[in-house]
Design a protein that fits this description.
Four copies of one chain form a homotetramer. By secondary structure, the first copy, chain A, is α/β, with parallel strands linked by helices. Chain A has two domains: 31 residues, no CATH class; 177 residues, Carbonic anhydrase (Beta-carbonic Anhydrase, Chain A). Chain A contains eight helices and six strands. In chain A, strand 5 and strand 6 form a beta hairpin. Chain A is globular and about 55 Å long. Chains A and C meet through helix 1 of A and helix 1 of C. Chains A, B, C, D: Reversible hydration of carbon dioxide. Chains A, B, C, D: Its cofactor is Zn(2+). Chains A, B, C, D: Its EC number is 4.2.1.1.
């Protein structure tokens, strides 16, 4: 039995805002929300993005309820396929989106000034020993990105950091292809993979171009 | 080096919507976005919610860029503290939010018609052998919730399912308290935990009341 | 040394309400309030509104502690830039918000039935000689708005009064642009200016539309 | 004629929240708001507080539309009575509240971590030459508080800063008594003055006790 004596009521300002949403957005769309509840969701795309508060997936893409199945973790990473019976939250989300919901697009959305990528960079440069510890969840999670540090171009830290942010996207796409159900969906044409990177400051969006093999502004 | 020959350009409809966002929302708020990029995020709260496309965390709470650090996984689950050096994406997100960003609130937001919770329920009722397989990422992820099935009240399936959805929230809050940095932040008053459940169909929001030990509509 | 023998204890009803706030809102949000105290405020917007008791800036915009830097004076007026070494409370507030806090938005919020604007109107129509006196602080303060009276459209008093309320907002925005630090922040895109008018009776909100050159309901 | 080509539409998130307020708080109270519009405001108290985003006057005192006439400026200062025909925004607000609205209470509400008071302190200690410049609106505004620096107790900076925050409240009350209309209203018993100080971090409220001649927690 759970012991949740530590849970507290929501802050009032959020309750007030919720009531505002309920009386407007919900009220105006309740027919659609009821259908979504009765018939289940049928999202067209899955988006994997960072938890960062500055990334607003639905705003950027003008998406409303029912459109995107969204998984958000630190640094928008996908680990390689590893069916070892342990708990893999990201893999579970991908599996559910591709095999149960059969989404048509899977978008990995990275962003500038990513604290997780920066942590990985500092760790790989030997400047963040605390992230090397076994007990560091962030450090161990960023191990997924670690192999990408070796191939970074020469340059100053900001340049290399940005390059690593973009490699986080590409590495995730590569890792996605190691999942048999992803690879087969891509191969039979029912799923397409996409990599995009958002500059928080300028609002720019760059998308991976497989022909030119670089990220290009849209 | 990565091999991302499978990545494709974004669907045109998303690029069009992005350009619309850039010319309007971004343009009206660029001073704020630039500051968020320059000075870093300082979100007041972390929200852990489901990936489900019908859950719109920011809409429900009228939140804009910079307000919420959002982790989304299947069924808004938090596993227990397990610093074994393996990859724990949810634990990494919680660690980053609490120790680096020092969020003041951590809200676990569940919802009705949760496919992940339903999968767990079917599995525990013996009706989903495929989820029992070692290779099922969803099944293994939902093992986090499994212990809650035992204590469900008698009743029909919908009643028990809804109860399990709410137990997923409470179990996550309990598991959060097994993380030393969460427990100490709660104990010293710098962090409060909150559990809430949203009914997709009716738009209702229920919040866990620690005094009455039940979810009550706000 | 000050002589404050005239100060009195707070009315009991306010003390009771304060204790209620302390035991509820404060208690639920103390982690956030402590962070705001330790790390300083970082408000996204400054709002300049009237002192009128019927204008509730934070309620209308669902804002909580830390979101808005709020200056309130009679009739939400901003005087022109005048760095003469005298005391200019409004100019000081604008200077602090723009140069020290670097707010991203500056919203001038006017309202219906504004007593200050009405006083200015009566004064300009020759019906309030007491406001013309040198010793009238309200009269001299409303001199800021006086130049706008000349260009009012023909019509009955209520129509012209409402027009003058809206001109108070626009004149303040124009005056804001005479402050070099405001103009340069607007020009480099780090600050945007906004004009809005709230109808106390109907609750309507109208926002200045620079394209149509009029206030339009949102 | 005004030229407001620089004004921009409001950010979307504020418009959404406004619509939420309109559909809930406004709708539930429209009878009262309509009366407030038709019959005019009749606030019981005037509050003079700081613009600081962390000070929520209405929350702390559980006040709703129509209760408080609120003037907010940097550091909640009131200048001395100076009827020189120039623009004095604070004096105009006090004059309107006391002579036109006839408020029964006038509360000067200070707070901890006040940036304006800190600026004054640094200036008086010779550590902020930029605030001494004629063109510094904040510096000239804080000149109102300057005379209080001389009598500060010995001690470290934080202790002296806190003392100066409280003297800002007392000096304002003293200055209020230099206004003939305030002094006569106090003397005939129709107005009482109050000084209070809020600790942002702990939520504590201290009120000036004229008997003990110190600020005491309520």
């Amino acid at each position: 039995m759970t012991d949740t004596s530590h849970a507290r009521p929501l802050p009032e300002y959020l309750i007030r805002r919720y009531h505002g949403w309920k009386a407007t957005s919900y009220e105006e769309n309740k027919g659609w929300y009821k259908r979504l509840a009765d018939e289940g969701q049928r999202p067209r795309a899955m988006v994997i993005s960072c938890c960062d508060s500055r990334v607003h997936v639905t705003s950027i893409f003008g998406a409303d309820q029912g459109e995107f199945f969204i998984h958000r973790n630190i640094a928008n990473l996908v680990p390689p396929y590893e069916p070892d019976g342990k708990q893999h939250g990201t893999s579970a989300a991908v599996e559910y989106a591709v095999t149960a919901l059969k989404v048509a697009h899977l978008i990995v959305l990275g962003h500038s000034s990513c604290g997780g990528v920066q942590g990985c960079y500092e760790m790989c440069e030997g400047r963040a020993p605390e992230l090397e510890e076994t007990s560091s969840f962030v450090g161990r999670w960023m191990d997924i990105l670690r192999p990408q540090h070796g191939g970074l171009p020469e340059g100053d830290d900001p340049t290399r950091l940005r390059a690593l942010e973009k490699r986080a996207i590409l590495a995730s796409i590569d890792n996605l292809m190691t999942f048999p159900f992803v690879a087969s969906a891509v191969e039979n044409g029912s799923l397409t993979l996409h990599g995009a990177w958002n500059d928080i400051s300028t609002g720019a969006l760059e998308v991976w171009d497989p022909a030119d093999r670089e990220f290009l502004p849209v």
